[in-house]
Predict the 3D structure of the following.
Amino acid sequence: MHTKFIPASLLRVLMMVSVLCVPAALSQDIAQDDAQADATDTVANIATDDSTNFAKDMPAAYVTSSHQILAYNRAIKETESREGAYGSSLSESLLGLALILQSQGRHDEAIKLFKRGAHLARINEGLHCEQQLPFVRGEIASQKAQQNYAQADQRQNYLYHIQTKSIGSDAALADAHMEYAQWQYDVYQLGLEEKNYARLIDMWELYRLAFNDIVSREGKTSPNLLPPLHGMLQTQYLISSYVIPPSTPVFGEEGQIDEDLLRFRTYHNQSYKHGNAIIEAIAGIEQERSPPDSPNHARVLVMLGDWRLWNGKNTAALEAYREAETELARTADAQAQTQQLFGEPVALPDIADMSLLPPEVEPNESAVTLAFGVTEYGRVQDVERLDNNEEDDTQAFRLMRQLRKITFRPRFEAGQPVETEKLVKAFQIQ
């Protein structure tokens, strides 16, 4: 993320390329607040350990990190003695120490230091200052590492709040919108909330904000619009496939209207139209930026066909696929491009990091290997399990049920969709 100002000293720490000099000894106590007490105690124990072979008995990387910890703590003590507990010069040492502890898996200690650093930045630079961003990002990483997703979610929300308050209307603001949209997707995938559809509403609105911000600065044909547009299309796939039981009450326990539910149902009803509009916008940009013989034009048509097929518009999907084949015939490597897009069935959505299936692997003892057919309409049939891995029976049966629900872009021959009788694929489902 681009920021207007981060001190060069903080950037040096973030890059972690320097090793500080090691002092001969370290005082037992460091005058600091509770946010640093645990880290200080640990360092003091190391410093007073009567072991002349300390460096010889430890891995080199660990010794280096331990020396850095000692040095950072001495720097913190010296700065506090000069400037007090809220001295602005403490930031570099606090961040450096927190990052080292984080790299060692000592996340509780690191989180305390990240929190202290962010608090210090607010005191010295202002409530919405950018100087606290490295500390907030660091805390989020440690919270995620400990699977404290609720706390990470809160801090991600705070990070976005600071970004929108401190960043002007430039590329960094659009990046902030998209970063937070990606976070909403990550949390949605975890399924932490009963009203998970609210995350999809947030995703859509954030990508829309990014799109509108870029349009206002760069116009409607800027290639920088492609990332938010692809994010918006991803969101529409999720919205269109999310099922809310019709019996779900609109009113809550206290009689209040569930506005999120009403909004989502509106979005769900408009999903197909929104997806078409998004793909049309992508096509317009590609027409401006790509030469006539570029395969990008065909890929957009395939994208349109996929969206139509996903929504049960089989005839319209076939029309888009055939038009894509016509476009591919104009490319220099037409045969290779056609084979890549239509040589075998492709599971939908065909979007990076959005597969409904586990990662494909080479068949092995720990993988689940399945054989199945795909009709000319993209429907899965004749699912058969080929492996003998009894330890994964439950997951394998769940995968087979999931596979039967997936829509595939069918294989094409001579411009026509054809049935594929037997595909064999191995999946890692650990």
Summary: The radius of gyration is 27 Å. Residues 26 and 47 are 6 Å apart (CA to CA).
